[in-house]
Design brief:
Number of helices: 5
Radius of gyration: 16 Å
Largest sheet: none
Distance between the termini: 21 Å
Number of strands: 0
Shape: elongated
Order of helices and strands: HHHHH
Number of domains: 1
Oligomer: single chain
Helix content: over 70%
Low-confidence stretches: none
Strand content: under 5%
């Protein structure tokens, strides 16, 4: 997949969650982490989504550490911070963008 597609997906993956975070903050007159986490566990459907995202984010972080060491990817830490502050919808495609840049750079040096 072209690197620009990953960049586009990371931008969308940043904008959408931040929009909803903003909506939550407006509704609550600020962002209340306690209420946020209690709202996540309100029913089995929301717990399923939260558990699925937790496993996906953990798997992504394991992949990130492996690939970062293997390819010597710079700025990898932005993806981890982005994953936990914004969401995996930002962190994962952004890391894939960084990974593609690193691979292209290595191929151009050959």
């Amino acid at each position: 997949m072209p690197k620009n597609t990953y960049l586009f997906l990371s931008i969308i993956g940043f904008i959408l969650p931040v929009y909803f975070i903003y909506q939550i903050a407006l509704e609550q007159n600020g962002f209340d982490f306690g209420r946020f986490f209690s709202d996540i566990s309100v029913n089995p459907s929301s717990r399923l989504i939260a558990a699925d995202l937790a496993v996906a984010a953990t798997t992504f972080v394991a992949f990130l550490f492996y690939e970062t060491r293997r390819l010597k990817i710079k700025f990898w830490w932005i993806s981890i911070i982005g994953t936990f502050l914004v969401g995996a919808s930002f962190g994962f495609p952004f890391f894939m963008y960084l990974r593609e840049i690193t691979i292209e750079s290595a191929e151009n040096k050959l």
